[in-house]
Amino acid sequence: MDLRYFLINLAGTLLRAFPFPTKTGLIKIGNPGPESPVFLTCNYSLTVERVKKSLKGIDCYLLVANSNGINVWCASTGGHLTNHDVILVLKTTGIENLVSHRRIILPQLAASGIEARVIREKTGWNIIWGPVYARDIKKFLKNGMKKSSEMRQVRFTPTQRIEMAVMWAFPFSVLSGVIFALVWKAMLLPVVLLTWILPFLIFISFPLYMPILSKTKTASFSKYTRIFDFALPTFFIWTFFVFSLAIFTFVNPNFSWATALRWGVLSLIIILIISIDLMGSTPVYKSSLHSDRFFEITLDGEKCKGEGICIEVCPRNCFELNIEKKKAFIPGVERCVRCGACIVQCPFDALYFKNPMGETIPAQIIRTYKLNLMGDRSIKTN
Ligand code: SF4
Ligand code: SF4
């Protein structure tokens, strides 16, 4: 493997929690001509390297838009990769003079932030939503720029869960290691060990405890009451860890109960920190601590015209189309991760969010306000 690519991947995995910006602009891949495809991605260095690697062997242009060094999905849903960033890179790189067509392929996960209609109106460029993962680009081109349902779907694979665990463990272990080296040396090793063991336990075992995460049953409670709902899975994970620790202490005479107690308290603090839901960065994201979690994707059948853009952009394959009736329906509503992409792209405003209390978030709010770090729609983007 190319050493540079390996090092960027390693740094990107260890420091994934932090933005890693790279240069914006135009990159030529191979020997592109006027008919060559044009791709666009964000300026998160790891993403740019992965996209370049996937495009190797294809004569094309790659536009890198400013996302403040954040990956495509987080940047689009958080208001860091906007219509403005796409228009800017289209207007300033000279791409209009290099190709004879006006088709640009964007990663599908940008659909929660970039409005295809606005880009077309302001620049004349038509957005084609590419696959979720860059590694599927060649298949996508071979398939006449059509995506299979696999190419459209975000999968939370064990490898991705490990990457997320490392994302928490590395910076957190360095920070807590430095603090404990200065103030309480005896606990340095336990802290560093726990900051690696616990994220792996929490992220990798998520499919096991997912069923106990509640979604809607406490929707009418206050935010403070809902903390208990958030605390339930956290307590469950901690109990499991403490139980394992007690068994270890029991069979190992060199490990005292006083040490076990300190490990137990530390582990609770670490688990609580990891469980804080920063824009879905923890798998305990379905806790009802955030009121946004209660909103469910809803279809206004009267407005739907059935041309299926929602199917193209949904990363969880929630939609299907009734071709005879020319209407979409949502059989996979429970898989929805509330990214908002379908609402942003629906040309007839037929989709919106609704919670069990009857409150709604209409399309215009989803288009205008993006999620802040705590998962609330408060960042105004236009
Ligand atoms: S994008 Fe909107 S109008 Fe089109 S099929 Fe989906 S819900 Fe219906
Ligand atoms: S149905 Fe849910 S997951 Fe799918 S695009 Fe809409 S908001 Fe996103």
Question: What number of domains?
Answer: 3
Question: What's the main sheet like?
Answer: 5 strands, mixed
The hetero molecules present are:
iron/sulfur cluster
CATH-derived architecture of the largest domain? 3-Layer(aba) Sandwich
- In terms of per-residue confidence, which ranges show pLDDT below 50 for 5 or more consecutive residues? none
What is the percentage of strand-forming residues? Answer: 5-15%
List keywords for this structure.
16 helices; Alpha-Beta Plaits; 3 domains; Rossmann fold; five-stranded mixed sheet; alpha/beta
Brief sketch in words of this structure:
With 382 residues, the protein is α/β, with parallel strands linked by helices. The protein is built from 16 helices and 12 strands. The chain is globular, with a radius of gyration of 23 Å.
Could you characterize the architecture of this molecule?
The protein is an alpha/beta fold. It has three domains: 3-152, Rossmann fold, CATH 3.40.50.11600; 158-286; 295-380, 2-Layer Sandwich (Alpha-Beta Plaits). The protein is 45% helix and 12% strand. A five-stranded mixed beta sheet has the order 1-3-2-4-5, with helices on both faces. Strand 2, helix 2 (45-55) and strand 3 form a beta-alpha-beta unit. The protein binds iron/sulfur cluster (2 copies). One iron/sulfur cluster is lined by residues 297, 313-316, 318, 336-342.
Chain-wise SSE layout:
Blueprint: H1 3-14, E1 25-29, E2 38-42, H2 45-55, E3 60-65, H3 72-77, H4 83-92, H5 95-98, E4 103-106, H6 116-123, E5 126-129, H7 137-142, H8 149-152, H9 158-183, H10 188-204, H11 206-209, H12 223-251, H13 257-275, E6 296-299, H14 309-313, E7 320-322, E8 327-329, H15 341-345, E9 351-354, E10 360-361, H16 363-368, E11 369-371, E12 377-380
Parallel strand pairs: 2-3, 2-4, 4-5
Antiparallel strand pairs: 1-3, 6-9, 7-8, 9-10, 11-12
The structure holds iron/sulfur cluster (2 copies).
The site of one iron/sulfur cluster has 13 residues, from helix 15.
